[in-house]
């Protein structure tokens, strides 16, 4: 992502660093068909002043609900149990401590630039990225 940003900003002088949303996901992620429509609506709701370039973009990370039960009824018993237990652990354990694993998440390009984007070599890169965002902006990043 760093290289893509560097390439675009170097080779396209009219490129502006505003009004772009970056979506990070796993290679096997399944998106809801309306994901990007909903993302656009959320972004517009959080940034109603988008036409006014002097207003800073609200620094927040959007995360869709995660479902680990795609076609669960077609899977073997142990896979179903693992999927259900994993979902319960996410809802009951991790989220209650504000540790939201985010296989898919989107954020403004400005936030990625401030935080230095993600490092794909890290495990739990999503949580590390969120901490880096909070450090870079010196505020809580919802």
Automatic annotation (TrEMBL):
Keywords: Membrane, Transmembrane, Transmembrane helix. The keyword Transmembrane helix applies. It comes from the Eukaryota. The chain crosses the membrane at residues 77-99. This is Glycosyltransferase 2-like domain-containing protein.
């Amino acid at each position: 992502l760093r290289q893509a940003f560097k390439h675009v900003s170097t080779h396209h002088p009219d490129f502006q660093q505003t009004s772009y949303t970056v979506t990070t996901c796993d290679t096997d992620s399944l998106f809801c068909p309306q994901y990007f429509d909903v993302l656009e609506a959320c972004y517009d709701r959080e940034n109603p002043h988008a036409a006014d370039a002097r207003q800073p973009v609200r620094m927040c990370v959007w995360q869709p609900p995660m479902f680990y039960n795609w076609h669960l009824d077609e899977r073997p018993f142990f896979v179903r149990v693992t999927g259900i237990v994993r979902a319960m652990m996410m809802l009951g354990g991790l989220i209650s401590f504000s540790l939201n694993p985010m296989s898919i998440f989107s954020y403004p390009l400005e936030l990625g630039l401030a935080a230095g984007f993600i490092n794909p070599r890290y495990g739990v890169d999503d949580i590390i990225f969120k901490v880096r965002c909070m450090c870079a902006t010196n505020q809580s990043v919802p």
